[in-house]
Amino acid sequence: MDTPAILVTVGGLALAGFVLWYFFFSARQTASAVSSSGGVQEVAITVKGGYSPDVIEVERGKPVQLSFYRDEENSCSEELLMPDFSIRRDLPAFKTTLVELLPQQAGKFEFTCGMGMLRGSLVVK
Amino acid sequence: MEPATKTETLDIEGMTCASCASFVEKSLSRTPGVQRAMVNFATEKATVDYVPTQASPATLKEAVINAGYGVVERAPDTSAAERSAEIDRQKALAYQKLKRRFWVAVGLALIIMPLSMLMLWPAMMARVNMQWLNYALLLLTLPVLLYSGREFYVSAWNGFKHRAANMDTLIAVGTGAAFLYSLAATVVPGFFTSRGLMPEVYYDTTATIIALILLGKVLELRAKTQTSAAMRSLIGLQAKTARVVRPDGAEVDVPIEQVQLGDLVVVRPGEKVATDGLITEGSSALDEAMLTGESLPVQKQVGDPVFGATLNKTGSFRFRVTKVGSDTMLSQIVKLVEDAQGSRAPIQRLADKVSAIFVPTVVVIAILTFVIWFDLAPAGTRLPLALVNFVAVLIIACPCALGLATPTAIMVSTGKGAEHGVLVRNAEALEKAYQVNTVLLDKTGTITKGEPAVTDFWTLPGQEAAQLLPVVAAVERQSEHPLAEAVVRHADAQGAASLTATGFRAVEGKGAAATVNGQAVLIGNRRLLADESVSLAPSLITQAEQLLSQAKTVLYIAVAGQAVGLVGVADTVRDTSAAAIKKLQALGIEVVMMTGDNTETAAQVAGQVGITRFFAEVLPQDKAGKVKELQGEGRTVAMVGDGINDAPALAQADIGLAIGSGTDVAMEAAGITLMRSDLNGVVTAIELSRQTIRTIKQNLFFAFIYNTLGIPVAAGLLYPFFGILLSPMLAAGAMALSSVSVLTNSLRLRSFDNH
Question: Pick the catalytic residue: B276, B442, B597, B642?
Answer without folding.
Answer: B442
